[in-house]
Specification:
Layout (H helix, E strand, L loop, with lengths): L1 H8 E2 L2 H14 L1 E7 L5 E4 L1 E6 L6 E5 L13 E3 L3 E10 L3 H7 L1
Antiparallel strand pairs: 1-7, 2-3, 2-7, 4-5, 5-6
Length: about 100
């Protein structure tokens, strides 16, 4: 059963990833992003999504720090450089994490 829950939280397709990015933007929830070119896992939230000149490409703007307060090297990513996203049911500004970031 826990495996099923985890599978529902992992988004792999472009459409699922974009929908999860939009959800984070609307609700300020934390997400984990696996970046294709570095295989880095970033836990943060989305602050903006803008269409790029390339068809179907989007620039994803992220918080300037991760959930634990560490600065992000790359606060912007291209949608095409996101391998997968893991959904979290926690707000980026959850008081517990805000305390950790201080």
């Amino acid at each position: 059963m826990p495996f099923d829950i985890a599978n529902r939280q992992i988004k792999n397709t472009k459409d699922e990833i974009l929908a999860e990015l939009q959800h984070s933007l609307r609700n300020n929830n934390a997400i984990a992003i696996l970046v294709k070119d570095t295989h880095e896992l970033i836990t943060t939230a989305v602050t903006g999504i803008t269409a790029d000149g390339a068809e179907g490409e989007f620039v994803i703007s992220l918080m300037h720090e991760d959930l634990h307060g560490y600065p992000l090297d790359r606060p912007q990513l291209l949608l095409s450089n996101i391998e997968r996203i893991i959904h979290f049911d926690v707000a980026f500004d959850d008081p517990q994490y805000v305390k950790v970031r201080r």
